[in-house]
Model the fold of this input.
Amino acid sequence: MNTSGVQGSTRVGLRALAATLLAGAGLLASGAATAAAAPDCPGGQIHPVTLANTGDVLEYGLLDSSGRFFYSDQSKGALMEMDGFGSPPRQVAAINGPGGIVAEPDGSLIVGSGDGITNGVLGDQFPMSSLVRVQPDTGGASTFASGLGMANGIAQAADGTLYATNDFGFDIDRVDTNGHVDHGWAKVLSTNGVVVSRDQHYLYVSQTFQPAAVQRITIANPSQVSTFAAAQGADMAAGPDDMTRDAKGNLYLAANGAGQVWRIATDGSICVLASGLQNPSAAVLGPGSLASNLYVVGFGGEIVELPGATALPAA
Done:
């Protein structure tokens, strides 16, 4: 039986549960704490523009230079694609528990497989997830690497090295260009979004089922972990999900439980770029002339655009 839809629905419930547990721990108990939530970004919030609504649980999205939008559909258990927003979606390849997506120079896509609760909970001790290489024009799919903890978020360094996260465990996996997996290369609890720094020296990871934060891992020495950004007050239960980085080094984070997208500046300060979204799970920048826009997918099935997101003033 295909349980992708069940797992997707359960992930939505877990976001709400995490917020409840954090609140119960006293993290949201005082008015002072609530007042400490992140401010709007300078220039004000961006009004989200809805481009499509699939009605499914979406985990990740990617817009290519030809206008095709690829997305990980947890409800269908597949990598899906639209030939332009508003066109009917089509299945590219069946993938069990599809997670993050990375575009390769040869035109293929690397997609996480096994982004589900069971894989995540057991993944540190019994890694059973994988990375799948998909040819988007033909739908051909083959296993690129196996033995990962969850393959939730995926990021690629300039040298081709891949990093994959597990928001139900501790282990972050490193995968070289030959598909060899260094399982548990680094350890940070409940990691989801993952980004390589502009200088390629650090790996940034967001934490979902912990007080909301972004940790910074030194790639040359992954035992060196420090807090890069930490939410305050009500935002501590925001449930950070996937994120991306612009050319200046700013991070853009989908705050799933809060229904927001945050911008995290290079000094670690957080501001709210957009709100009123339904469980946003990933924010990605567009290609080429659309590189200033963010494209956001979420558990409610919506695909929205935040136009000019990277053009807002820094302070």
Q: What stands out?
A: The longest strand covers residues 141-148.
